[in-house]
Amino acid sequence: MEPHTEPSPVSSRVEILRAWPDTSICHGFIGRAGGVSTDAFASMNLSYWVGDDERAVDTNWKRLRREVPDLKLVARLNQVHGSVVHAATRDTAGLRPAGDGIVTAEPGVMLGIFSADCVPILLVDAKRKVAGALHAGWRGVIADIAGAGVRAMAQLGARPSDIRAAIGPSIGQCCFEVDAELGDRFGREIDGARNHTRAGRPGKAFIDLRAVVRDQLERAGLAPANITSVGPCTQCASDRFFSRRAARGKTTGLQMSFVGFAA
User: Fold this and answer.
1) What would be the CATH architecture of the domain defined by 16-170+227-261?
2) DSSP letter at 223?
């Protein structure tokens, strides 16, 4: 059965999934409901660089900030499917450098990453007030963006054993069918990845990206109990989350995942 791809009726409420009850951690995985964008961008698209009407995106941001007032200063990236991680401060938050990970030790600086099937990863060391946000597509997973993000947080004073990670809504193994050659590459280049790959149709394979990322986070020093997954497969739930696969590769809106500590 093909996944449902039509957006549900526009809701006035922004859907934000959260992983931790700790109110000192400002974080969430934002769904696609609650905005004013239309067509492929319906409705809570927060990206200015996918072709959406800028006025609609402005309105979406205003609505989001009413829900989450701490999102005054959001550091963002020019995401390129690699493993480069940047440290953000109040002075650099507006630069949008090329990379797929961003970390900060400054309260009041929120970190935002965008996705539409790729794996969003939020990281926090609440004891030392260090946060990180990572964008992990399959190329970033092979490049170990998860390990790079943990190391970048450690450079800011975080301890891997105290870092908590939340892996957000992203394409599940149920829908992430790739060429068998790519499945073999995962098995060759990533320890344990064969355990998260299964055969698909002739010449195809299914990969569980979230499970591979979890393994990488554990190898980077996180305790298994400190890693959680939040939300469904984005292609299966494309009425709630943007999905490039559900859109058959066409341009869509992007959902934002965010994390930081309030000032």
Assistant:
1) 4-Layer Sandwich (3.60)
2) -
Query: What confidence tens digit (pLDDT) does each residue in 160-201 have?
Result: 999 999 999 999 999 999 999 999 999 999 999 999 999 999
Q: How confident is the model at residue 107 (pLDDT cuts 50, 70, 90)?
A: very high
- Spatial distance between the Cα atoms of 113 and 256, rounded to a whole number of angstroms: 6
Count other Cβ atoms within 10 Å, centred on residue 22.
12
Of the candidates 126, 114, 117, 96, the one whose C-alpha atom is nearest the C-alpha of residue 46 is: 114
Q: Which of 160, 170, 102 is nearest to 137 (CA)?
A: 170
Cα distances from 18 to residues 23, 39, 178, 185, in angstroms, run: 11, 27, 30, 33
Determine the Cα–Cα distance for residues 258 and 246; give it in Å rounded to an integer: 23
- Cis, peptide link before residue 43, omega less than 30° from 0: yes
